[in-house]
Write the structure tokens for this entry.
Amino acid sequence: MTLSSADLRRMYRTMLLIRRFEEQAVAFFLSGELRGSLHPCIGQEATAVGAVFPLRRDDYLTCTYRGHGQAIAKGLDPKEGMAELLGRRTGCSQGKGGSMHYTDLSVGLLGENAIVGAGAPIAVGAALRAKLDKTGQVAMSVFGDGAINQAALLESLNLAAAWQAPVVFFCENNLYSEMTPISAMIGTTTLAERAAGFGWTTMTVDGYDPIAVYQTTMEAVEHARNGGGPVFIEAMTYRLFGHMVGDTEPYRTKEEVAEWRARDPITAFPQRLIDEFGFTPNEIAEIEAEVAAEMEEISRFALQSPWPDVSEIGEHVFA
Amino acid sequence: MRELTYAKALREALIEEMERDPNILLLGEDIGVYGGVFKVTEGLLARFGPERVIETPISEAGFVSAAVGLAMTGKHPMAELMFMDFAYVAADSIFNQAAKMRYMSGGRAQVPLTIRTQQGGGRGNAAQHSQSLETFFTHIPGLKVVLPSTPYDAKGLLKSALRDPNPVMFIEHKLLYNTKGLVPDGEYTVPLGKADVKRSGTDATVVTWSRTVLHALEAADLAAADGIDVEVIDLRCTVPLDIDTVVESVKKTGRLVVAHEAHRRLGVGAEIAALVQELAFDYLDAPVERVGALDIPTPYSKPLEDEALPDAAKIVQAIKRVTYSET
Ligand SMILES: Cc1ncc(C[n+]2csc(CCOP(=O)(O)OP(=O)(O)O)c2C)c(N)n1
Ligand SMILES: [Mg+2]
């Protein structure tokens, strides 16, 4: 699977937009405009984009509270995303869901989720639907390393295998489940081998290499789409920010963070586009300017959006 | 007496009880090195070691049932659910296993298990991280249910929970951890199932618990400015339920408001209203009022969340309705 220059440009542009979006969200949190909790995907943009770009618009996706990046990559309007973070009427959930519940069926997004592991069986259900109705769609669930220890997720590994559902599980192994190292919480060396035990095809990939993530995921998605059964991808990645805004990070060393930061895909990828793919520094600067302009528009839209009216509070409990 | 935060008072209770009883051990997510996301277990791993402060995988169904097994075989585990909302993930462990084991065994088994968790809204955590679920635990027989509102009660009630031979749901409120209050220097406990009259009054009774106690006390002050003398009862526990203290108060005031942050529909307020009309019908001068969260999932956006949850102003309105005062 070779990527065209246009594809590569779009990948980098989306990764950068996600980084800037998350940085702006953190700024809004710190200035008190955004409430609750915020779990930025800063550092994990290569998996956000590399995992989701191989999906078709009508393929299904579930993700987590750290899912702004995947949601944007899937096609959620970032203006609606930011307005949602500010609790505004124009947000993707009309202010009712906030940071952890982005949902947009028009782009196949079946929801972020604030319950660890909960999105996985929902994706299996969506995949089963695609199989039953022979639609050719696949479903993907993106979750963290810690989710692998949830009963719902483990049950869904078996359900998908028993049903041969066209589903891809994309596990972002960022080494920590919240503040606890995953290595201390499991009895195997890798997470992928656990899925193998349930009869899944498994793959592993460097989650800081967006092209490798894209290619691996494309192979997995095609495998599932063609009736090959479920595929589990373990991507090694890292948060360059705390688990949430306010995390004091006593569980990891500055050196460890610095090691990963040196490979930050947001700086490494454009350099690689220049070195290996013939992009010019000007083209990179142009992308950066585009993203900066778009971010300004996103923030302006969110800040100028109206609040929901309290008369709408009871809407949407039932269909 | 010293001034302590609710979080620090809870931490003291854990330390004192762990020192007293070597069978007490803690299980939960991020409770070790990080000290818990609300810092209640800070420093406990260093103090008691990894065999008594057990960092768990994100496996609520598994570790709560494992705690049942520990409890049935001689330990006194304290399992921590980081957010009340995750109790649904551990629902079988709590409702089918912990709650019923003693009864099903005809008294041969016992489950001395404390489940600590925190609940409540008001912080913009949205529908899956803001729920108040005491109603469920109150409904299912076999669980004691504790909801402290002050640092003093938090410490004293947690110590009692850790000495109780039964499963106890110990439910904190996320917006109480930083509140401060006086806590004795020496040893004390607060018994489970004894309500606390926080303020005495003659015109109306407000029964409440957890963070809503703070709203009720504020409401009582506001009502006092309008010449209404309100009695505020902090129920502290919904199981065992100290209905006697409530009935005694209603016999004096003739008017009752029950206020809680859980949804109004079928909330514990409904049970209290029913009991009071059974036990003190002739003393009531007005229908019992219930103040609770709207019957909708908790919305994220601030104006919506404010509208959904009870506050002092909503309690004042209820007080005025039961006293037939101008609103
Ligand atoms: C059922 C459940 N238990 C606990 C939590 C609290 N919690 C939120 S995120 C998290 C860590 C998840 O780690 P991981 O799956 O590795 O994802 P990451 O945050 O690293 O992206 C925990 C324990 C939760 N939201 N849901
Ligand atoms: Mg993780």
Q: What stands out?
A: Chain B is about 35% helix and 20% strand.
